[in-house]
Design brief:
single chain; 11 strands; 4-stranded antiparallel sheet
Length: 154
C-alpha cells in the first residue's frame, strides 16, 4: 500500500468455511494470512496500521481469487440402467457424478446412435446428487439413450 492505494501498513487475513450452505452458517476457520485453501466461502479482512505522518487510509483494494475447475467425463452411460435418485423417469435422469463440486457451471451431453431429431436439455445443475437432464426422441417423447457427458464446475 502506498501512493494511490492508501497510507499505512496493511494486514490482510482470511477466514473460510468448507461446510456453510449460504455463507452465514457452518464452521469458519480462524483468521490467518492468505494461503492456498479449499473452501466454499471466504471472508477477507484488511486492517491498517497508521503511518507516522498521519491517519491510515485505504483508497483502493483489489482482491483476486482463483478456483481451479473440476471436470469429469461419463462415457457410454445407458440411462435406462440408472436407478434410485439417478432415475426420475424414462429419459429423465441425474448424471452420477463422482467428483465433489461447490457448483456446476457446464453440462454437455452426446447422444449415441439415436438418429436425427433427438434432443436433450439440462433441467438443473445440482452439485450434490448430479445434474438433471431430459432426453427426447425424434417425436418429442421422453426416451432413454446411451450417452457421453462432460461436466465442469468448481
Amino acid at each position: 500500500f502506498g501512493g494511490d492505494q492508501g497510507r499505512g501498513t496493511p494486514t490482510i487475513e482470511v477466514s473460510y468455511s468448507t461446510d456453510s450452505t449460504d455463507g452465514s452458517d457452518g464452521t469458519w476457520s480462524e483468521w490467518s494470512a492468505p494461503a492456498l485453501i479449499t473452501a466454499k466461502w471466504v471472508k477477507i479482512r484488511v486492517t491498517m496500521a497508521a503511518p507516522a505522518s498521519g491517519p491510515a487510509t485505504i483508497e483502493e483494494i483489489v482482491i483476486h481469487l482463483s478456483a481451479a475447475p473440476v471436470t469429469e467425463e461419463i462415457n457410454n452411460l445407458d440411462t435406462a440402467t440408472l436407478t434410485g435418485a439417478y432415475r426420475l423417469g424414462t429419459g429423465d435422469v441425474r448424471l452420477p457424478i463422482r467428483a465433489t463440486y461447490s457448483l456446476i457451471t457446464q453440462v454437455m451431453v452426446g447422444l449415441q446412435n439415436t438418429g436425427p431429431g433427438w434432443t436433450w436439455e439440462v433441467a438443473d445443475k445440482d452439485h450434490t446428487i448430479g445434474p438433471r437432464i431430459r432426453i427426447y426422441d425424434n417425436n418429442g417423447n421422453p426416451a432413454d439413450a446411451v450417452i457421453d457427458s462432460f461436466i465442469r464446475g468448481m
